[in-house]
């Protein structure tokens, strides 16, 4: 990017050659973003829905589900954190 301009494109099997074309410059101008926003509004399509339709369905990751084990571990971590704060703030001693 020595010249201050980088230009590249991405081909797509679905959308064809040069489906996405990108030009990057060193300026801090946001006019391109504003122009893109107005073009997308005029287009009228729901692009987020179209992008989400392209993503294959997958089951949620197991860690995202709450279980009795996860609740117990969370309470244990909370209790240890409270004990650590009390040791530091009040000078309590830990009896092992």
Question: Mind explaining what this structure looks like?
Answer:
By secondary structure, the protein is of the alpha+beta class. The protein folds into two domains: 5-54, no CATH class; 60-96. It is 46% helix and 19% strand. A hairpin with a 3-residue loop joins strand 1 and strand 2. The termini are far apart. The model has no long low-confidence stretch (mean pLDDT 81).
Entry keywords:
96 residues, 2 strands, single chain, alpha+beta, elongated, two-stranded antiparallel sheet, 3 helices
Brief digest:
By secondary structure, the protein is an alpha+beta fold. The protein folds into two domains: 5-54, no CATH class; 60-96. Helices cover 46% and strands 19% of the residues.
The main β sheet shows up as: 2 strands, antiparallel
**Low-confidence regions:** none
Span from first to last CA? 61 Å
Query: Helix content range of the residues, please?
Result: 40-55%
**Chain-averaged pLDDT:** 81
Question: Looking across the biggest beta sheet, what order are the strands in?
Answer: 1-2
Given helix and strand content, the structural type is alpha+beta
What secondary-structure arrangement, pairings included, does this model have?
Layout: E1 5-12, E2 16-25, H1 31-43, H2 47-54, H3 68-90
